[in-house]
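Re: folding output
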Amino acid sequence: MHKAGFVNIVGNPNVGKSTLMNQLVGERISIATFKAQTTRHRIMGIVNTPEMQIVFSDTPGVLKPNYKLQESMLAFSESALTDADVLLYVTDVVEDPVKNQEFLDKVAKMSIPIILLINKIDESNQKELGALVERWHGLLPKAEILPISAKNKFGTDILLKRIYELLPDSPPYFEKDQLTDKPARFFVSEIMREKILLFYDKEIPYSVEVRVESFKEDKTLINIRCIIYVERDSQKGIIIGHEGRALKKVSSEARKALENFFGKKIYLETFVKVDKDWRNSDRELSQFGYN
């Protein structure tokens, strides 16, 4: 009998959801940097074996929205509560368990299997971890609790085995050779955004969106043209940098990462445009895929 199902990953920002997703799927599906709000979309990564298909879904960190982009991100996270066969709620050893009580209350009311993952246990000790497990048991009494270290791959094999046990009997939902539900262009913009997150400080990465204007592929080369959107002229200046050096550096790092991701030579052109208030425009957010 074949098993298949949707396993959705939720939790607050910066607890290691994307790192966990990448460990479970075995590919760089979700960008994982040290900054919060890295994941903005709901990204699916698919694990296939002859007897099962797990469709993992990584979601943005749960936060109180300050503008329409964050409202859309929260909607992605809340939608993950409605269509899961198994829910993975990720926390870590340092965050306050009741940091987002409203979302936690919604999770507590769910009837599907919930596995609570306490991540980054390499940063804790046995006594602290024991107290944390007790506290979480009080907050989510129906959840199974599993301490893990996603970065060190500790506990992920046990987790996969448990997910398999909980999956419903079902034929696969996607082709067996499919890794994700997202098109190639999506990963271009995600990788470009990752490099911007790593390279620039303060509010710049959060004011940026990337659109792939063209993606032309042949046997050995992919030609890509990207536009980096910012909200203000001052941000455009920072992205480009003195004599264009900052943009060249980011583009060079993105090109290397893209060549690694696609396994082909990449010719990458990048431009910067100002689009005032894109984070609060329904029309713009829709064009960037936040709908």
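--- second protein (sequence, then structure) ---
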Amino acid sequence: MAGAQSVTPTDVLLVEMRGISKSFPGVRALDNVDFELRAGEVHCLLGENGAGKSTLIKILTGVYSPDAGEIRIQGQRIPHLTPHLAQQRGISAIYQDFDLVPSLSIAENVFLGREPLTAYGSVNRDEMRAQTRVLFEGLDIKVNPDALLSSVGVGLQQLTEIVKALSRNSKIVIMDEPTTSLNQVEVQRLFAAVRALKEQNIAVVYISHRMQEVFGIGDRATVLRDGRIVGTEELEELTTEDLVAMMVGRKLQERYYKEVVTPGDTVLELSDITTADYVVRGVSFRLRRGEILGVAGLRRSGFKEVLRVMAGVVPPKTGTVKINDKPVSLLTPRDAIEAGIGYLPEDRKTEGLVLSLAVKNNIVLPILPRLGRWGLTNAGREKETAGHYVRDLEIRTPSMYQETEFLSGGNQQKVIMAKWLASHSQVLLFDEPTQGIDVGAKIEMYKLIARFVREGGALVMVSSEIAELMSICDRILVMRDGKIAGEFEPGTTTEEQVLQVVASSTDTTHE
């Protein structure tokens, strides 16, 4: 936390939002909310999913107009804030889905639509490159401005978004879950960039569910719950438990949840698995019933790719997979489903769900042939099946006919879990299952995982949070250069020992 206080924020108020209220049909998203932002501070905006964070940010960026209240930017009241006006006033937002063009260079992305011109009206590429270098150097980063964005890692893409904001002379930068897709090396690089912004008296609104990050980079925190302000506090005066209690309205006695289950017979076995691109090379391991197996590593180490092999997304070039000691071919996701394997991908919105479909339809989608006859659907059985899992998993939704896109992140994860439970999956593959969900929803997910393995299932879990793997897994595999570099049992090792092996993994995302 000491690093977060190396630059002292000023008392200059860049943003004042007073009495902000906003309603949507049937929902009061914000109720008389006050929020202020000082120059040179990192102000963390916290709350469970559905607390009102996104609505408040969209009002500050001009996407939504408030029903009541006023907004002042650098002391001037702005009665009708629009996205264009917000940008003119120095407000930039960096969302989880980057607003970048992969086929263009870093410099072209930074100045897209605002390219410097020569006296003859053509794009001055030398000037564009030079300005890009200077902007990155202001964050203490050296970069090749001509590198295609598609050729660099997600960490450098994140930093390109920040530099793009700087090129617009932004005084306020909003970061929405900025570390979602970053490894630990990239997170530290991002934090260094945020501290460089503070040194330039730029204010950062930082939205995150990760308490360690909040205390590592933040100065103050404002907590929202059910659309109302719970409080704004200096972070140096709070503990993690204090913040969690503010967010959920109660103290959580545990941050993780695990039950002791005695593993049974081997249900899944990988032998010498190699992919065509050699990101996975010669991987072998076994998974037993009742077991939670964690997999860790850096990007391109193979730790996420091996999960996609088992899910039938990436067919193996060589090697064998066995389910219940019988060889299976996993050339497609359908093969994996029929083998009893369910997959919760990292990007639940594009790969795990059909957001435009109702909760009911998402739950029964993989098993529609089982619920009907002669190619015809059976609406009654679909409703009965989906209704059972909505109740059983306590999915919070107005009805099973609600479009899935309107559910919180935690409830979307539950819909995916319901889908695989309805499919009677023996093995679940979870890629970052608690990413982007609030602390209360995380505990619920851990309890669902514990119940699944207690009832005879087996689970493989990929996570970038080593503490999470240490807390709920029975074993942890660390991958390096496409191979298994180490195996650990949480009860007999430390987080630092696992991190040491993870950090030594090859990471070529910035090359």
